[in-house]
Design brief:
Layout (H helix, E strand, L loop, with lengths): L1 E3 L2 E11 L5 E11 L6 H21 L4 E2 L2 E2 L19 E6 L10
Length: 105
């Protein structure tokens, strides 16, 4: 659960661990209250991107240093989750309000 940029967000991740200890992310459910949503597609993209980024950090995220200097300079030096270990399914639930300016949900 997190509050950021005036939005409340909660995420639940369903994982499976096989006999060899390999972790597989089966499903990510996210609920959020962002107030007025003008473009729901943008919300979908943001939530799915966050699920992939979170999976990437969980599987590969580490910060290393050599001689006291951090080796990673930015996100381009981090490995990202690929199709074989990204969430199989993402679901979004958000409280929507009709936009007063354009009438969209």
């Amino acid at each position: 659960m997190h509050r950021s940029f005036l939005t409340y967000v909660a995420t639940v991740v369903q994982v499976q661990v096989d006999d060899a200890g390999k972790v597989r992310v089966n499903r990510v459910d996210t609920a959020l209250d962002a107030g007025t949503i003008v473009n729901p597609e943008t919300i979908r993209q943001q939530v799915e991107g966050a699920a992939v980024m979170g999976t990437s950090l969980a599987f590969y995220g580490e910060i290393t240093a050599t001689n006291g200097v951090i080796d990673q300079s930015n996100f381009d030096s981090f490995q990202m989750a690929r199709m074989n270990n990204s969430p199989r399914e993402t679901k979004r639930l958000y409280r929507a309000e009709r936009c007063a300016a354009c009438g969209n949900w």
